[in-house]
Design a protein that fits this description.
By secondary structure, the protein is an alpha+beta fold. The chain is built from 16 helices and 11 strands. The chain has 4 domains: about 200 residues, no CATH class; about 160 residues, no CATH class; about 80 residues, no CATH class; about 45 residues, no CATH class. Bound molecules: adenosine monophosphate and magnesium ion.
């Protein structure tokens, strides 16, 4: 076997930028940074604000590696200056993009990068394109009534969760760095008149692109059909592979390609949502402006993790009334959002049939992906149709019927030696006991329902003939032991606000290997403590960030 010579990492000044978004798409001609509506353009030039005292809180070495960056450079003061927006590297070309969106089901008009500033696109040594984007680096023409800033609380949540999701195997935007600006930002967390000053922070996000459903919707809403076509073709050739159009492609070839692209976006979206459902992630604000066409989880705001399995749960207090974005609703909302994207692209195709077909494709992809997902979560060899669907559905009903920690339950079920299970009246098997929150809920009725299910599961597993070890390995590969529980993120926030970043580093490390047993970190494999039930940030979050 020949071994590849290890290439030396590069310094910050050696990053290669190739800023296609600004090179190929039309700019808003106005150079000043005032709030405005724009037309016939995809973005505005804007510089990040200058801040008082950039300090690095943490960086993700895997993301630095994607950029070929030397770790020593990530710890330099120059790095903190650049990734709070105080300095630009040669080749950077800062801009904010224009998009619209449906918020909570209503068309909200122009939104845009209100506090995100793109620095440019790096092409790494393997030829991969990575867009760098600062979140919280000051106002842009799209900031509307807000300040363009972000606070440590929400930035820390975004930084840790994007990396945690990546290591869980769920498609996501990445985070290179979390920095403090050294400035204070006023926030009223629950919009109830209790504003406080919080430390300002910036996350540098990294993704192949940050293009959202709302980018297409905005151009369609303005009736800018030529630009819509230009933007779509740009996206197809730059952010996707296999969708490049020949220059002399005919009208019908173009239409077919747009539809094939849309069908692909449907598939990517289904795969992303299945990932969320597998690990118990609730996005919290699935507005169409928060949907990536690459099927990446984007815009970590008032997201949350299911602790006790409850399909009706949403962490977002701003959505407490309608619970539009509750856990169990996410697959339907993704579909609703795809319909909005279809509507936006429709003027370029003028035929509904291919869109209907692609949307049906979303349903099929979701259904078969869901089947594969529960099959692996339960450690079965293959999905055997209706009986297995009923087995999984009945388990989820059981999980919701008493307070059951979703993460702990599935992990413990993997450890549980089901072949040797003998039902004992009035008892929860000791291997599963750690998943339950409230002892008094484990009454005879519940125990007998659980036993009934376990006996069915036992028979099903026996039929598969897999060894306990095989089943355990299969299940542990998809049922994480460590997720960024809301209260754990809050502990890291409390400490970071007091200048102690050690838990951020520790969590980043634990969450790198969410499927591995890490006995030294088993404080993070535990039920949510009682104090976290009603604490702000742990059970309730808002869009204020
Ligand atoms: P979100 O609900 O976070 O997805 O944000 C919706 C819109 O509001 C997007 O256009 C954001 O860029 C913008 N936005 C959110 N927070 C701020 C802020 N502090 N300053 C400026 N714009 C913001
Ligand atoms: Mg957003």
């Amino acid at each position: 076997m020949s071994s590849q010579p290890q290439q030396q990492p590069i310094g910050l000044s050696e990053l290669t930028f190739d800023n296609r978004f600004v090179a190929e798409l039309p700019a808003d001609p106005q150079p000043t940074n005032e709030r405005r509506q724009i037309t016939d353009a995809c973005y505005s030039h804007v510089l990040p604000a200058t801040v008082a005292a950039p300090t690095l809180v943490a960086y993700a070495r895997e993301v630095a590696e994607l950029l070929d960056l030397d770790e020593a450079d990530c710890e330099s003061s120059e790095f903190a200056q650049i990734f709070t927006g105080n300095q630009q590297l040669p080749g950077m070309h800062p801009y904010a993009t224009c998009y619209g969106g449906h918020q909570f089901g209503n068309w909200a008009g122009q939104l845009g990068d209100g506090r995100a500033i793109n620095l440019g696109e790096v092409v790494n040594r393997s030829g991969q394109r990575w867009a760098l984007q600062l979140k919280g680096a000051g106002p842009t023409p799209y900031s509307r009534t807000a300040d363009g800033l972000a606070v440590l609380r929400s930035s820390l949540r975004e930084f840790l969760c994007s990396e945690a999701m990546y290591h869980l195997g769920v498609p996501t935007t990445r985070a290179l760095s979390l920095t403090l600006t050294g400035e204070q930002v006023l926030r009223d967390m629950f919009y109830d008149g209790n504003a406080r000053h919080e430390p300002g922070a910036v996350v540098c996000r990294v993704a192949p692109s940050f293009t959202r459903f709302g980018h297409f919707q905005m151009l369609a809403a303005r009736g800018e059909t030529d630009l819509l076509r230009q933007f779509l073709e740009y996206t197809m050739r730059t952010d996707f592979s296999g969708f490049e159009l020949a220059e002399d492609a005919s009208d019908s070839e173009r239409k077919a390609a747009y539809c094939a692209w849309f069908a692909h976006v449907c598939e990517l979206t289904a795969d992303m949502v299945i990932g969320w459902m597998r690990v118990g992630f609730v996005h919290g604000v699935m507005n169409t402006d928060n949907m990536s066409v690459l099927g990446l989880t984007i815009d970590y705001g008032p997201y949350g993790w299911l602790e006790n399995y409850d399909p009706d749960w949403t962490p977002n207090t701003t959505d407490a009334q309608g619970r539009r974005y509750r856990f169990g609703q996410q697959p339907h909302i993704a579909m609703w959002n795809l319909v909005q994207l279809a509507n936006a692209i429709y003027p370029l195709v003028e035929d509904t049939a291919p869109f209907e077909q692609a949307l049906d494709g979303y349903g099929h992809r979701y259904e078969s992906g869901w089947a594969d997902m529960v099959t692996s979560k339960l450690g079965l060899r293959a999905f055997e149709g209706d009986a297995d669907k009923a087995l999984a559905d009945d388990l989820f009903t059981l999980l919701a019927s008493v307070e059951t920690d979703m993460t702990i339950f599935f992990r413990q079920l993997g450890e549980f030696d089901i072949a040797n299970y003998r039902a004992a009246a009035g008892e929860v098997p000791s291997a599963l006991r750690p998943a339950y929150y409230v002892e008094t809920q484990l009454d005879d009725d519940f125990c007998s329902r659980l036993q009934g299910w376990l006996s069915r599961y036992q028979a099903r597993v026996q039929r598969d003939g897999q060894s306990h070890t095989q089943r355990c390995i299969q299940m542990h590969a998809v049922n994480p032991r460590y997720v960024l529980r809301n209260y754990i993120a809050q502990l890291a926030i409390d400490e970071a606000e007091n200048g102690d970043f050690s838990r951020v580093a520790e969590l980043l490390d634990v969450l790198r290997r969410p499927y591995d047993d890490q006995p030294e970190h088993d404080q993070y494999y535990a039920l949510r403590p009682d104090w976290a039930r009603q604490r702000a940030g742990c059970s309730m979050l808002s869009c204020s960030s």
